[in-house]
Specification:
The protein is α/β, with parallel strands linked by helices. The protein has helices spanning 33-42, 60-74, 102-115, 148-158, 166-171, 182-209, 237-245, and strands spanning 2-7, 12-17, 26-30, 51-56, 77-80, 86-87, 90-91, 119-124, 127-133, 139-146, 214-218, 232-233. The chain starts with a strand and ends with a helix.
């Protein structure tokens, strides 16, 4: 059994998968390695894991600590996905290729493997990242903007009269009509901004990719785009790319 980890800015997303399979046997989200190991133990998975592969956008020291803690706790080899100038037909488009986020790189690899052609890859996470990939696999670059949580957090932190609790937040997205409370106005406004951004990026991408391309949406906030007909929601794009980069 292989343990796969996507170490993002906020959480550790993980899943277990049997060798040669594409469907995970278990998955979850952890805040740190002790939390992950405890969850694996509760599910009686610890003894069946014989290797681990991970992608991490965290700093080198923190990533090294994660790798060492996993190797010690599970007694397995841990493979880390690294950036490259190219992978198969996919070519890293950054001027400084080591500065591209490894999660973006793996999502690009995963998306191109699915469609075998031009694609737009949108990851709705702590940050929203957008990457354009040409028909021949060339990464044309992309964009990075704040995600929903950052948009909301900046308003709450810097606008003194914009304050509300979690209970109000959870009820605010019942519809998208103009908000009649601060919570409704902020939550609905942020959602509309994100969805409008996705739509505008799809239109903008046509200038570079033409009309024949696939739009993929992934990431922790992927559900915000689940009903957009223009997008194909694939929750495991990073894991798909990880499986190829660290077979």
């Amino acid at each position: 059994m292989i343990l796969e980890l996507d170490c993002g800015n906020s959480f550790l997303k993980w899943r277990t998968i049997a060798d040669g399979c594409v469907v995970p046997s278990a998955d979850g989200i952890a805040v740190n390695i002790p939390d992950l190991v405890a969850d694996l133990g509760r599910r009686e998975l610890t003894g069946s894991i014989n290797r681990c592969r991970l992608a991490s956008v965290r700093g080198d020291l923190e990533t090294a600590d994660i790798i060492n803690a996993l190797a010690l706790a599970l007694n397995v080899r841990v493979d880390k996905a690294c950036l490259a100038s190219r992978f198969g037909n996919v070519v890293n488009g950054y001027h400084d290729q080591q500065r591209l986020g490894v999660d973006r790189w793996l999502a690009i690899i995963g998306a191109y493997d699915i469609c075998k052609g031009a694609c737009l890859v949108i990851d709705l996470g702590t940050a929203i990242t957008v990457d354009l990939v040409a028909q021949n696999g060339a990464h044309l670059g992309g964009y990075i903007v704040p995600g929903t949580a950052l948009l909301r957090g900046q308003l709450l932190a810097h606008a003194r009269r914009v304050q509300y609790g979690a209970a109000e937040s959870s009820l605010a997205l019942s519809d998208l009509s103009p908000g009649r409370s601060t919570a409704e106005a902020v939550e609905r406004g942020c959602l509309i901004m994100v969805r409008s951004y996705i739509t505008s990026q799809v239109e903008f991408a046509k200038d570079y990719l033409g009309d024949d391309f696939t739009t993929f949406v992934t990431g922790g906030d992927m559900a915000l785009a689940k009903d957009l007909a223009i997008a194909k929601c694939v929750p495991d794009l990073v894991f798909r790319g990880l499986a190829q980069a660290c077979p």
